[in-house]
Amino acid sequence: MIKIIIFLLLYVPLESIAADDEEVKVSIAQYRGGRDAAISYTFDDGLLEQYTLVFPELEKRNIKATFAVNGGWMGCISAKKVCMSWEQARKMAQAGHEITNHGWMHKNLTKLVGEERRFEIQHNDTVIFEQTGIFPRTYFYPGNRKNEEAIACASVDRVGTRIRQIDIGSRRNARWLTQWTDSLIANRLWGVGMTHGIVTGYDAFPDPQVFWNHLDEVNCRRDRLWVTTFREVAAYMAERENLVLDIKRTSGKITVTFHFTMDKELFDMPLTLLLEDLPDQCAVTVLQDGRNLPVNLCRRGMVVDFSPWGGPVEISYASSITKIR
């Protein structure tokens, strides 16, 4: 009799355990890829050494940055400053860096009105587009001087303007840069670094090797840091703030529909869905518009990039743990 009982236990049918739908959390990750923080390196005034020194160092590390140029200064050679050419700016744009608007002649927008202010902003837009083939969708205030009226004017047809930044130059050493990076991660912040001169010029580094070493350090932490252009982070954050999720749950499946009314010509960044509290060893499949979307692990769960302009995202999952039926 005992042998028969053992035989029956060995051949009991098994089935997968579907995850508890109510326990699985679905949200838009604060930063792309589910990273803890973001950094955008921005370089002002279109100085020549930003092309000759910074650009090669960024390319070595596959870091994309934002260069804010004054169209009226391009190619300028004077005792005060030497600026890059349009050909050099175009080469950086073709490599994936952002070339954006810092005013035509670096004029204080708070002191301009009417046509003069419109020209300072829009003429620079036009020339940047003519020279690089990419219309600038961000704006950096010359001298960081701004008021509500200036912000309103500069924000038209933009994904964002640079409101806050931290200077990275003559006052910074290796310890400070490491602490800054640590603070961004700990507090889940977007850091916007602002740099002008590298070896010469305004706020230049005593030793630029300190900055190159900092870039190496950041590069080693890209599992936690989203390092990209100002435009990409600004667009992502605006999309995330304005996207409304409609989540429907059935056994082992979640369907996420999006309500999104932003301008598709401006806001075209993929967003990241964050799936938390999935069971261990869970098999996850994600579809949008009939396509399988890659699913990756992050520190908080699983993440998948999707288009906010696409159809519903269908998430199917089941644990590989089994139970007796």
Could you characterize what this model shows?
It is a single chain. Strand 16 and strand 17 (301-306) form a beta hairpin. Helices cover 30% and strands 28% of the residues. The two termini are 23 Å apart. It folds into 2 domains: 13-30 and 239-324, Immunoglobulin-like (Sandwich), CATH 2.60.40; 36-222, TIM Barrel, CATH 3.20.20. The protein contains 8 helices and 18 strands. By secondary structure, the chain is an alpha/beta fold. Helix 6 runs parallel beside helix 7 (209-219). Strands 1, 11, 12, 14, 15 and 18 form a 6-stranded antiparallel sheet that branches. It is found in: Secreted.
Parts with pLDDT < 50 across at least 5 consecutive residues: 1-19, 321-325
What is the terminal separation in angstroms? 23 Å
The assigned CATH architecture of the largest domain is Alpha-Beta Barrel
Q: What's the CATH H-level homologous superfamily of the largest domain?
A: Glycoside hydrolase/deacetylase
Which oligomeric form is depicted? single chain
SS-based class: alpha/beta
Summarize model confidence as the mean pLDDT: 92
Number of helices: 8
In angstroms, what is the radius of gyration? 25 Å
Count of distinct structural domains:
2
- Roughly what fraction of the amino acids lie in strands? 25-35%
- Element pattern in H and E: HEEEHEHEHEHEEHEHEHEEEEEEEE
Q: How is the biggest beta sheet arranged?
A: 6 strands, antiparallel
CATH topology group of the largest domain: TIM Barrel
Overall shape: it is globular
CATH class category name of the largest domain: Alpha Beta
Number of strands: 18
